[in-house]
Amino acid sequence: MDYFLMRELISELFENPREFLRKLRVKPNVAKIEVKSYIGQETTRYVEKRLKEAEDDGDIKAVLLVIDSPGGSSYHSFRLSHRLRKSKKPVYALIENFGASGAYQVACASEKIIAGEESIVGSIGVVGASLLNYKGLLEKLGIKYILVKAGKHKWGLNQYGEIDEEVLSNRQKMVDSDYERFVGDVAEYRGLERDVVEGYGDIYNAQDVLGTLVDKIGYEDEALDAIKEGLKLEKVKVKSPRSIKNLFGLSLFYAGTKDEINGFFSQSSQAVYRA
C-alpha cells in the first residue's frame, strides 16, 4: 500500500474514529474509470468491462471517466464512444493533461466535460498516413529499387518507388469517411454546428474552448460537484471498480489496466468522499 495513504488512514482512524467509520458506511455512488493510455484494444476492453460493472451495481448513480490520453485508433475511439452513449448510467468526463483526437471523441460522448485550464483538448481530425517518397533521390544517386509483390494495388504507398494514385485516392476516402463521422458525432453530442466543429482541428487549452468543446473548468472536485448538481445527489463518494481488504479488514478501492497496475503494493488509490 502507498505509504502516504496508509499514514493518512491510520491518522484519521485514531483522531476521529466515528467520522472514519461513518465514511466507510456510506456506499460509493460514483464509479471512477480511467483512460490514461493510447486508446486501443486493451484500454477499450478495460473501460467496457468497468462500465458494465458500474451499470450492474445498484448503488452506482454515475460514472466519472477520467481521461489523460492523446488519442488512439479510429476503430477503438468510435467503439468506445458508441458504448458510452449507450451507458445505463450517466457518464461525466474529466480531462486531465490530454483529451485530444480520439480521446476527445470518447469524452464528447459524456453528459458533461470538465477540464483544467491547462488541459489540452481538440485535434478533431484523422491522420491516415504520413510518409516521404525517396524515388527521385534514389534515381539521382543511381540506386535501383526492386520490389517483389503480387496484387495490382499492393504496396501502393511505396516510399522508394512509384506512388499508386488509385491507392492514394482510396486512402484519402477512408480518412475522409472517418473524419466526417468524427465531426458528425462531436456536432451531435455537443450540440454544435458542423462548421464550428471543423474549425477545431488544432489542439487548444480547455479555457479557450469553454462553452464549445468543454462545459466546465476544474479538476476532480469540480467534476464531482457537477455530478452532484446534475443528478441532485445529497452526497457523492467515488469508488474504483475493484476492491481489496487492507490489514484492518476495511475496504479500499483501486482501478487500472495491467499496464497501470503492477500489484497493490506499487499503486493504490483510496475511496474519495465528498459531502
How is the CATH topology of the largest domain named? 2-enoyl-CoA Hydratase, Chain A, domain 1
Strand content: 15-25%
Task: State the helicity in percent bands.
Answer: 25-40%
Distance between the termini: 26 Å
Large-scale geometry:
elongated
- The rounded Rg comes to 23 Å
Structural class: alpha/beta
Structure description:
This protein is α/β, with parallel strands linked by helices and 275 residues long. It folds into two domains: 3-124 and 200-274, 2-enoyl-CoA Hydratase, Chain A, domain 1; 126-190, no CATH class. It has nine helices and eleven strands. The chain has helices at 3-15, 17-25, 41-56, 74-85, 102-107, 135-140, 165-190, 194-198, 220-231; strands spanning 30-35, 62-69, 91-100, 112-115, 120-122, 203-205, 216-217, 236-239, 242-245, 251-254, 272-274. Strands 1, 2, 3, 4, 5, 6, 7, 8 and 11 form a nine-stranded mixed sheet that branches. A two-stranded antiparallel sheet has the order 9-10. Strand 2, helix 4 and strand 3 form a beta-alpha-beta unit. It is elongated. The two termini are 26 Å apart.
